[in-house]
Amino acid sequence: MRRKPACPDEKLVDFLVHSFAPQFANWSTSARALAAEAGLDFDAELPQEWRSLVPSDFGFHNSLRRSDGSLAFVDFEYFGWDDPVKMTADILLHPGRTLLPEHRSRFRQAAMRLYGGDDPAFARRLSAYLPLFGCRWVLIMLNEFIPELWRRRTLAGESGSWSEAKIRQLGKAREFLAALPEKFTE
């Protein structure tokens, strides 16, 4: 008699199949259409002249407020050439540091001023790809389901059960996915 393979977490599968995948498909189709309207090839590699030296894990979670109120950014472990759209999306969407709508708009406008001169398609690319970077964050939030990552957390002192952690993270991923559309507007 053949044994059935172990069933993965049913709640995760349900979320991925019924919530995440349809939304990702819609946003992917939209991103391709917006890119095509802007005369961009969605599948092409980003031209070098549109790349910038950026701290890949850039965000307010990697900053310290100085006594004068200014910010000092730390953690440049992944610094290198990358798409400034990705860095901007990370700031706008990071689940650990939710920005108020007016702060999101202000940062987005500043990024468009900063990068728009070198990359005339920056604003269009940001609008097209922001939802896809949001989907990436949803999947990152689900890393809790990876056994090796959970083991690392327990070695680092994480308390509670793995089942509780997965349920908690799945709830956060659901909420984040549902709240994403409001973060795409200027």
Polypeptide structure, described:
- The chain is built from six helices and four strands, in the order αββββααααα.
- With 186 residues, it is mainly alpha-helical.
- The protein has one domain (10-45, 84-183).
- The strands form two sheets. A two-stranded antiparallel ribbon has the order 1-4. Strands 2-3 form a two-stranded antiparallel ribbon.
- Strand 2 and strand 3 (71-73) form a beta hairpin.
- It is globular and about 50 Å long.
- The mean pLDDT is 87.
Layout of strands and helices, then pairs:
Blueprint: H1 10-37, E1 52-55, E2 63-65, E3 71-73, E4 79-82, H2 84-93, H3 101-116, H4 122-141, H5 147-155, H6 162-183
Antiparallel strand pairs: 1-4, 2-3
Helix pairs in contact: 1-4, 2-3, 2-4, 4-6
Helicity level: 55-70%
Structurally, the number of domains stands at 1
Sketch the major β-sheet: 2 strands, antiparallel
**Radius of gyration from the CA trace?**
19 Å
User: Strand portion, in percent?
Assistant: 5-15%
Structure characteristics:
two-stranded antiparallel ribbon, 186 residues
